[in-house]
């Protein structure tokens, strides 16, 4: 076993003591340095000295994304500029981005967690890790880069894009693991196919490290079947560091399926998003994190808006870090159409059940005088493409029923030519909502 993984097996009691000690330290630190946090604590009448047990965390106020926007750029920064070594920003779909300054220690903690994630996937220092997440303000590229170097992998920092060159380097340098968004990897598969590259025959690729956006179990199966690699799930968010907050082990990813949270660094809670009360392990609610080891921009009870459950009890791998369910949907992605909740992942699941189409799609919502129009553009697979109108109409109906059965709405299905919908190098935007 890689020595980096030792912490994953810390006995539960010891882990809780460690978390409590770190929790006291970070709350005290934040209270002394971040006026917004101190003011909210004072309004509630709680003090750092009130942390006697881990459960006492529930007395403290939450932080949310709009706090980071309101305090942009550095109002929630706790460390002086002299201690900051790097900024990361998350795009934010609307308005100002959020800005997260990191100290050297923050970067080290993040690399520790990401390297432990790689170890969990079975990646070793003998692997060539191609990092095809974007490098820059986005945390994906540099997060995996530092984790990969700490693990001792030979890191190939291609960043996203220039896919033909990526494939050339993959073959020439013998890449064994690739890290990117699942939607970008689908594109890599497309391009490889066009170039006549067979992953099993022509590459040494064994691991795919996918995250930064939700992807379905059906997508995982498709990726694994068409390439022969094992697809692993890595979760994270800029506010809490970046990728490597949680990762799937070979057991929990197949049986639960879920991801171990590196909870010696990132303390998780699940709350009821309506009442904001903590929920016990096993119940679904909103995931909330407190960063125990970050000092640039500590987050205390940060509401991720991601919905999941925590599981206690030993995983077969022996790790004591709690497992969370995979994040199936981003709450920001939820659409309300004709009063029905719709997630893009449901469309993805439906499309993956129809072999003649690709899981490349676009959901377009247009206001009309009566009901809003829900249109889904779907790409036909190259082999299934024909100019036989009757065959196309049959296929359109087949897609319609597959989608309707899952989403409970009757969309207008438009079939489009192979390769005609936009591809993404990073996170994909599948929804065009003209109602906003
Ligand atoms: P932005 O909010 O600009 O997209 P981030 O990169 O910080 O910036 O996005 C983090 C969010 O991405 C998470 O809160 C979650 O919703 C989603 N996400 C990250 N990793 C995964 C994953 N493995 N599975 C599902 N969703 C994920
Ligand atoms: Zn496990």
Write out key terms for the chains shown.
Rossmann fold, 23% strand, 2 domains, alpha/beta, GMP Synthetase, Chain A, domain 3, 32% helix, globular, 20 strands, binds zinc ion, binds adenosine-5'-diphosphate, 436 residues, 9-stranded mixed β-sheet, 4-stranded mixed β-sheet, single chain
What's the helix and strand layout?
Layout: H1 12-33, H2 35-44, H3 65-70, E1 84-90, E2 98-103, H4 104-121, E3 128-131, H5 139-151, E4 154-156, H6 163-172, E5 177-180, H7 182-194, H8 199-202, E6 207-211, H9 217-227, E7 230-236, E8 243-247, H10 252-255, E9 258-261, E10 266-271, E11 285-291, E12 302-308, E13 310-311, E14 323-325, E15 335-337, E16 340-342, H11 344-351, E17 357-366, E18 373-380, H12 389-407, E19 412-416, E20 431-433
Parallel strand pairs: 3-4, 3-5, 5-6, 6-7, 17-20, 18-19
Antiparallel strand pairs: 1-2, 7-8, 8-9, 9-14, 10-11, 11-12, 13-14, 15-16, 17-18
The structure holds adenosine-5'-diphosphate and zinc ion.
Zinc ion binds next to loops.
Give an account of the 3D structure.
The chain is an alpha/beta fold. The chain folds into 2 domains: 1-333, Rossmann fold, CATH 3.40.50; 335-433, 2-Layer Sandwich (GMP Synthetase, Chain A, domain 3). 32% of the residues lie in helices and 23% in strands. It is built from 12 helices and 20 strands. It has helices spanning 12-33, 35-44, 65-70, 104-121, 139-151, 163-172, 182-194, 199-202, 217-227, 252-255, 344-351, 389-407; strands at residues 84-90, 98-103, 128-131, 154-156, 177-180, 207-211, 230-236, 243-247, 258-261, 266-271, 285-291, 302-308, 310-311, 323-325, 335-337, 340-342, 357-366, 373-380, 412-416, 431-433. The strands form 5 sheets. The protein has a 9-stranded mixed sheet with strand order 4-3-5-6-7-8-9-14-13. It has a 4-stranded mixed sheet with strand order 19-18-17-20, with helices on one face. Helix 12 (389-407) links the parallel strand 18 and strand 19 (412-416). Helix 7 (182-194) packs parallel to helix 9 and helix 11 crosses helix 12 (389-407). The longest helix is centred in the first third of the chain and has 22 residues, at 12-33. It is globular and about 75 Å long. Bound molecules: adenosine-5'-diphosphate and zinc ion (ZN). Adenosine-5'-diphosphate binds next to strand 7 and strand 12.
């Amino acid at each position: 076993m890689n020595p980096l993984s030792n912490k994953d097996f810390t006995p539960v009691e010891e882990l809780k003591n460690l978390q409590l000690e770190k929790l006291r330290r970070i709350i005290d630190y934040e209270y002394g340095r971040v006026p917004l946090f101190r003011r909210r604590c004072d309004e509630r009448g709680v003090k750092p000295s009130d942390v006697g047990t881990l459960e006492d965390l529930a007395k403290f106020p939450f932080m949310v994304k709009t706090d980071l926007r309101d305090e942009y750029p550095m109002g929630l920064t706790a460390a002086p500029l002299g201690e900051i070594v790097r900024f990361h920003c998350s795009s934010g779909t609307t308005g100002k981005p959020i800005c997260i300054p990191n100290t050297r220690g923050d970067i080290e903690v993040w690399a520790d967690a990401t390297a432990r994630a790689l170890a969990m996937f079975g990646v070793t220092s003998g692997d060539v890790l191609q990092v095809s997440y974007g490098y820059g303000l986005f945390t994906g590229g540099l997060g995996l880069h530092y984790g990969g170097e700490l693990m001792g992998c030979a890191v190939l920092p291609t960043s996203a894009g220039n896919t033909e060159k990526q494939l050339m380097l993959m073959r020439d340098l013998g890449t064994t693991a690739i890290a990117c968004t699942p939607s970008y990897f689908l594109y890599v598969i497309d391009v490889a196919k066009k170039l006549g590259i067979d992953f099993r025959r022509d590459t040494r690729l064994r691991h795919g490290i996918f995250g930064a956006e939700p992807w379905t179990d059906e997508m995982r199966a498709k990726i694994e079947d068409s390439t022969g690699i094992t697809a692993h799930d890595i979760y994270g968010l800029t506010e809490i560091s970046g990728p490597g907050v949680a990762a799937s082990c070979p057991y929990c990813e197949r049986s639960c399926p879920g991801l171990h949270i590196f909870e010696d660094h990132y303390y998780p809670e699940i709350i009821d998003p309506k009442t904001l009360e903590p929920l016990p392990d096993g119940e679904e609610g909103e995931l909330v994190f407190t960063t125990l080891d970050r000092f640039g921009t500590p987050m205390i009870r940060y509401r991720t808006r991601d919905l999941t459950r925590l599981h206690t009890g030993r995983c077969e791998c022996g790790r004591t870090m709690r497992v969370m369910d995979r994040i199936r949907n981003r709450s920001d992605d939820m659409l309300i159409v004709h009063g029905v909740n719709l997630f893009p992942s449901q469309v993805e699941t439906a499309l993956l059940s129809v072999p003649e189409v690709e899981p490349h799609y676009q959901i377009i919502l247009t206001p009309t005088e009566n009901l809003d129009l829900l249109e889904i553009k779907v790409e036909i697979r190259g082999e299934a493409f024909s100019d036989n109108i009757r065959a196309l109409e049959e296929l359109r109906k087949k897609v319609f029923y597959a989608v309707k059965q899952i989403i409970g709405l009757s969309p207008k299905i438009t079939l489009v030519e192979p390769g005609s919908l936009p591809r993404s190098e990073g996170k994909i935007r599948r929804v065009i909502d003209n109602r906003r």
